[in-house]
Write a structure and sequence with these properties.
heterodimer, A: mainly alpha, 11 helices, globular, B: alpha+beta
């Protein structure tokens, strides 16, 4: 699938911001000090930035507001509604917390619930697509939720480290390990989730399997088209391998090492850990899209 | 709302005969011609006369070669457009309500005034039947020519989709597939009309009629193994054979 930069940036940044909202809403970190300002601003800023980025690939941006209307049937609409609600409730919670010094736990809990639901809705946009087995035949919701919560914990810990509060470095390291394990789990499932993973083949696509083996003799057109650009995106095997290694090192190993060193050398180390994790997640999320295969490409002879 | 109707009053759709189609692309050209000037935004082409032409089409003709276990391969021309699925995944994923399936005839349409061009419906369709127009920024798809089939300003004979009207071999049939007594339903029953990618659970309305069996080679006939030596050195029988042998003796 075509890895639109707007969607890659959106799912990573907003995922992290929403993950932070979940932890802050649940009461992570000290109630006072500069921490509340930095952490709340990071959570809202990253989520909002991602939200703005998400409109980047739209053909008709002036109609984007209509995406709040179909929450009864569409996961994308649910995501939009939930994200707006999460930002509003968390914004109120953060305003009371930062300006009034009042950290209302019922409001925080509601924000955390909405943030988690938003992350799940984002994952379901992809997990619902039966035509893309790499997303629907794999534990995609678990990958998105655990990634966002890990990034959120790292974000909150970095905010704590930078503002001199005690940072939950040990828990962050544990979360990174868990997140890495979930990613390996997803990757293992994805390795077998090719176009044919749900029983589709050139034979079922054409209905001609009863006659023999089907091969594309002549494509409908000699040039490119939307279908090939969007749903038959190909990434070189070597490039994918290098990028995955970069994602694993930057996304997991570097932040893990920094999180383990933080108690000794200082909480500020969690800030570069957050930056590395973000870079790694961008690489891995790019691959999430770029490596996904769509069954419609079977009509173009891509087995 | 982009929920799907529980049932539709009719199931208008196409029945495409893969035995009769000759792969001339007339249906695709007629579709492009009609739909670029009719309903909604035109079907844009980019770099149409340049090095890398690309464009929006609602109907595309693939050509496949099917190789049986034994015997020669067979060429099958395969027109593909929206199948107007009963359980259309493209409709339910739409966040703006622009995609919908009509209760009265089952046709799946896009309201271009409310489409935001996110492209998720094209991702949800297993058939590649939806294309985002590069210039208009809205999703385009087959409308079954709703601006022809109910159009009282054109002669009765033209009130069928442009592709069906244009097909020179009669490989495309239009009608109510939900009515068991309709001509298209009888055709589907007689010829064993099939669904594309039934495993995707979309319940397509459009049906494809499989190519008929060929004489002699479906069940292990000899057309697959031609004796080339015999062709190079013919041994005619009957009168010609007697003549041949007589001339040889004379020579």
């Amino acid at each position: 699938m075509h890895p639109a930069p707007s969607i890659v940036v959106f799912t990573v940044l907003s995922g992290l911001g929403l993950g932070m909202m979940a932890w802050l809403g649940l009461g992570l970190g000290p109630d006072g000090g500069a921490y509340r300002w930095l952490a709340s601003a990071l959570a809202l800023g990253l989520t909002g930035l991602g939200g703005i980025a998400s409109t980047g690939h739209l053909g008709r941006r002036e109609n984007a507001w209509r995406a709040f209307s179909q929450w009864r049937s569409s996961w994308l609409s649910r995501e939009a509604c939930l994200m707006l609600a999460a930002m509003a409730v968390f914004g109120l919670h953060a305003a009371l917390w930062c300006l009034g010094g009042l950290r209302l736990w019922p409001l925080g809990l509601a924000a955390a619930g909405l943030a988690l639901a938003t992350i799940h809705a984002t994952a379901m946009i992809y997990a619902q697509l039966r035509a893309v087995p790499r997303w629907s035949a794999t534990p995609t919701p678990a990958l998105f939720v655990v990634s966002a919560l890990t990034g959120g914990l790292l974000g909150a810990a970095a905010a704590a480290g930078l503002t001199g509060a005690s940072a939950p470095a040990g828990w962050t390291a544990l979360a990174l390990l868990l997140d890495g394990a979930v990613w390996v789990w997803w990757q293992t499932a994805a390795a077998g989730a090719t176009r044919g993973a749900k029983g589709s083949s050139m034979e079922t696509a054409t209905g001609l399997g009863f006659m023999g083996r089907v091969r594309l003799l002549e494509a409908p057109h000699t040039g490119a088209n939307y279908l090939l650009d969007e749903m038959a995106f190909r990434v070189a095997r070597n490039r994918a391998f290098e990028l995955r290694r970069l994602g694993a090192v930057l996304g997991y190993l570097v932040p893990l090492a920094l999180a383990l060193l933080a108690p000794v050398l200082g909480g500020w180390l969690l800030a570069p850990a957050l930056v590395a994790h973000l870079a790694g997640m961008l690489a891995l999320r790019w691959l999430f899209f770029a490596e996904a295969e769509h069954v419609q490409a079977l009509y173009y002879g891509r087995r | 709302m982009t929920g799907l109707p529980n049932s539709t009053e009719r199931k208008m759709g196409l029945v495409i005969d893969l035995d009769t189609c000759v792969g001339c692309h007339a249906c695709a050209v007629a579709c492009k011609e009609w739909n670029t000037g009719g309903y909604g935004a035109p079907l844009a082409d980019t770099d149409a006369y340049g090095a890398e032409p690309s464009g929006t089409w609602l109907n595309r003709i693939h050509t496949f070669e099917v190789a049986p276990q034994a015997g020669p391969a067979q060429v099958v021309h395969f027109p593909k457009s929206c199948l107007h699925c009963e359980d259309a995944p493209c409709v339910t994923v739409c966040p703006t309500g622009a995609s919908y399936k009509r209760v009265e005839d089952g046709i799946v349409l896009v309201n271009e005034d409310t489409c935001m061009g996110c492209g998720l419906c094209a991702w949800a369709c297993p058939y590649g039947a939806r294309e985002l127009d590069a210039l208009a920024g809205v999703m385009k798809k087959c409308t079954l020519c709703i601006d022809r089939i109910y159009n009282e300003n054109i002669p009765q004979i033209d009130r069928i989709p442009a592709c069906v009207r244009a097909c020179p071999t009669g490989a495309r049939h239009f009608g109510d597939i939900g009515d068991p007594a309709s001509a298209v339903s009888r055709l589907v029953a007689e010829r064993g009309g099939m669904d594309l990618m039934p495993e995707q659970g979309t319940k397509p309305v459009n049906k494809y009629l499989p190519p008929r069996g060929r004489d002699g080679w479906r069940d292990g006939g000899d057309a697959g193994e031609v004796n080339l030596a015999a062709l190079a050195d013919p041994e005619p029988g009957g009168f010609l054979g007697w003549l041949d042998r007589a001339l040889e003796r004379l020579g």
